[in-house]
Every structure is written in C-alpha cells, then in structure tokens.
Amino acid sequence: MSGKHGEKGKSIWGKLREFLYGLAMHEAALVAIQKKAHFEHLFMLITMGNLLGVPIVPHYYTLRLLPYAVPRLAGWKRYMLREKDLTDKADFG
Amino acid sequence: MNAIIVLILGFVVAFIGYRVYARYIDVNVIKADPKKATPAKMYMDGVEFMPTSRNILYGYQFKSIAGAGPIIGPIIAIQWGWLPALLWILLGAFFIGWVHDYASAMIAMRHEGASFGGLSHRLISPRARVILLSFIYFYLLLIAGAFGNVVVSTAIGLKASPMAWLLLTIAGVLAGQMIYRWKQDIILTTVVTVAISLFGIALGSWVPSNAVLGDALANSRWLWAICAFVFCYFAAVLPIWRFALPINYVAAYIVFFGLFFGIIGIILKAPNFTLPAITTFSIPIGPLWPIMFVTIACGAISGWHSIVSSSGTARQLESEVDARPVGAGVMFLEMMLAVFALIIAGTIFTSAADYAAAIKLGPAGVFAKGVGQFLNVLGLPLDVATSYGSVMMIFLAITIMQLVIRFMRVATSELLSDVSPVFRNAHVGTVIASILGLVLVMTGWWQYLWVLFGGANQLMASLALLLISAWMVSEGRPVAWAFYPMLFMFVTTIAALLYTSYNLLVVKVLSGAVKGEALIGNTFMGVVALFLVVAALILAWEGYKAFRRFRAARGEAAPSKA
User: Is A2 within the bounds of a domain?
Assistant: First the structure.
C-alpha cells in the first residue's frame, strides 16, 4: 500500500483514488489482514511457542519447522511480547 | 452574513493554520525528519505496523474521526448565537485541534508506536495509566448514551429513518457476506448494497414507521432504544467483518454523498444567516463559558482523535513528514464539516423561534431539514431530500455507537477480568455496556448528556495534551504551543463538568425537582461527571509531578553539558 514512486510521481487522480480508498476500503483491508495474521500467529505459537517459554509441540517438530519460520520470527516475537492495552484493541472502522 | 463568506473564512483559517502554523511547529519544534525510520517501517509486521501512503491515511483518518460529533455540536451551540460558535470552531481548530491530532501521532511515532496507556505509564506514572484506562470506559459510556439519544430522537422525530436503518442493516450484512465469504467483486458489492440502502431511504419516505407500527409504537422511546442496543449487541459479539465493518462501509457512501452534494447546494444557494449572531450569555444548558466549549467538541478539538492518531494512524505513517497532512490536515477538514453544520443550522430557519421549536425535538430534525433544503437546490424532491438528511444523521450516530459498544465490551474484559473470569465473556461485557447505555438514553435529558459527552471528550483531549507537554518538557523543547492549549482545555472542561454535575445533583436531585426516571438519570450522569473530574484532577497532579521530575532532571544534566 506504500507508494512505490513517492508522492511527487502521483497524479491528482491517483491521489484522489488513494484518498477514496482510505475513506472506504482501508479499514476493511486491515481487518482482512488482521484476521489472516491472527491465524498465522496462532500457528506460530503452536509450533514455535517454546521460543517464548510456551512449549506446545515437542521440540523435534519445532526444529523441523524452524527454517521455514525464521523470516517471520522477529516480527512474531515482537507482536507477541509487545505490551498492549485497551486502546490497542479499538476498532476505528 | 452570507454563508459563502463564512465558508471562505473557514478556508483561510485552514490554509494559514496548515501552511504556516502547523508547518512552523513541524519544521522548527518537532523537527520532523523524512529520513528517520518510522515505527511502521522499523516494526513492519503487515498487521499493526504497515507503511501506508499518506493519501490513503488521509481518507482513513477522516473516516475514523468525522462522525455525528462535528455536526450535532454546532447545531446545539448556535443557541448562544452563530458568532461565538463560529469563533470557537475556527480558533479552537487553529490553536488547539490540529496541535492535539498532529502531536498525538508524533508522540506515538517517536515512542515506537506506543499507545496512550503505555505513554502515560512511561512519561507520567504507572497510576496515570490505570486512571486513564478507567476514564476511557466512562468516556465511551457517555458516547454511547449521547449517540444513542440521537438515534432514538431521530427514529421518533423523522419517521422515514427506521426503514432506511433496517435496509442499511440488511445491505451491510449482505456486503460482508459478498466481500468476505462469496469473494465477490468490490465494485459489484458496493453498487448492490448502496442501491439497497438508497432504496431504503425512498421506501422510508413512502412507508414511514407510523404507517407500519402505528403511532404508539413509532413514538416509543423504549422501542427504538432497545432496537439500537440490540443492533449494537450484534455489532459487539459478531466478528467485525460480519456486521459492524460492512455496515459502516455502506453507510459511509450514503453519508459522504449527502455531505458532498449538501456543500454544493450551499454554494449554489448562498444563503444568509437568519439566526442572531449573539443571543445571550446563559441558555438553559448553561453559560457560554465553559459549556459552549464542550458542546462543540469535534470540529474544534476532540479527544477521540488522539486515540485514533496514536493507536491507529501513527503505526502506518511511512514518513514523519506525513504526520502534518494526516494529523493536522484532516483536523482542518473536520473543522470545515463543523462550519457546514453551523451554516445549516444558522440559515434554514426564518426566525429564532422556529429554530427554538425545532431544537426542542433534538438536533437531528434541524440537520435533516437543512440537508433537505440544500439537496433540494440540486433537484431532489424536498420530502425525499429531508428523509435523506434524517437517514444521514441516524447512520452517523449508529455507526459510531456500535463501535463504541464493541470497544466497551473489550474494555470490560480488560478492566474487570481480574475481578472475575466471567467478565471475559463477550456477551457479559456487551450486556453490561448496553444496559448502562440504555439507562443513560432512557433517563437522561439529551442536552445534558451531550454536554457530558463533550466534557469527557475534551478531558480526553486535555490528557493527550498533558502527555504531549510532558514529552516536550522531557526533551527540553519549546512547550508553550501544547501547554497553554492543555491548560485552557483542562480548566474549561473541569469547570463545565463541575457546573453540570452541580446542576444535576444539587439543583435537580437534592432539591427534589426531579422524580422517577429523571431522578435515576440525573443522579447517574451527575456521579459520572464527578468521577471524570476526580480522575482528571489525579492525572493533572501526576502530570505536574512528572513535569517537576523532568525539569529537575534537565537542571542536573545541564551543568555537566556545559
């Protein structure tokens, strides 16, 4: 969703289209992404939980899956361990 | 005064505020750096932290902050005269509103995307966070009460709106099913569901609620209040994609079509203000200072924006320099929406007596009549255009209300789950929130309820400005641009809440002036107002201690630097 060529490369219609997308669809897209991420995080917790001190499956399976999980590990751990409060859970849709 | 002059004045204030004042603070005080990595880039997880184009965020921020607030506030506040209301909208947005929205996004960005709870813990004290989160619960309750009242009074006063509400619900659920389950094309989904909603507006005009339900039921506050909270119950317990989100999506088109064409109607008609510029200092809900400053919250300054800016937008900004167009720019756009509402209320009545008769029934009737007149200029029949206005108002209110009840359900779980695990249950949290909201709607006088909602909103804004000031002091940067607005908002809002709670508890309850339902409503609202004042004072004291701590720390650090 990030502009590839920067703001200067966009026409006025391009900017207007993005504005309308933000107005109408962005929240819906965020919800779909969050829904997908929720299941991914659940899968990571089940398979890699022992990295956070929550062992769920035997280490053997964790080690077998580890190479596939490496690209996502940092982001997942930050998401799981970041302190969250009430205002993080607000829906602004 | 002609409405076009007022619109031009609004544009001039927005232009100077955005291009001169906001730019100065952005470049010289905050020193926004386009090369600095934002949390969206540093912590990109594709979920909460995601770099997004500023044009998209401009639309997202506007949709998230602009609801019924900037419309209803000015319509009520014109009772003091349109001039004080206009001055507060323009000056409030110029000196306070954009400062609050922009700096809320910047403070979150400079603290790794932390939310306000985390920031108050870090910058002020651990106690500040607990109080802030409890405060937010009551703030949400007052939003639910105030907007619930708008829904009920609109459904009773404008009989076309319930049918449109019903068809919007059907269209929204269908939109969710088409987008997320049937994977249909978004344009097809939008065309079908918006067409169903527009048909609902026309159907409401042809078949008003009293023709279907009879006069007794169509005028029953209980019926519409229960309908509103049952609607919110589904919004709170169902997955957001199933109910709340697609309904808001469809409603957004109806509302923005109305606003867009309404503004064109104003420009074409160019009406003159017919209501007096200034009426009197004191009106039945209270004196101009401090009550008017909380009656108009959104449009001038609103605490809700700080939650959206910090927890939502700040985590998506791809560059620090985007905070000014998204934070400050959108606030000025909302200011123009409030000016639009003021023009509606100030120009459509032939006399002050006409307005007084209309406002007694609630602000929805005033708005609907105004939108009707301005859409009529574009050729839409007056009765359908007025129905359209009433539907816009009910959509604006119910879409915010459902999100608030959903948020309260989460808040109940967060705040009370340590007391008993039963509060973790989504149904329990939703029922508690709905019952409290229902009590407010059924027993509170709507004008007091609106003032209390505005007061809580402005207090939330004061607390955000307190955090921003503490941040500025902690970094040894100029603080006056945030500190004086904070001081003004704090003093004004606490005075407004104390005045209102005194009126409710001493003048009405203790003197025995009210009985029955009104007794419950007045007592409840008065106690909530007192709670907000106490919470705000504790936070102010904690903030003061934090200021002293930061100043002392900088005083100790200074000699070693030299």
Answer: no
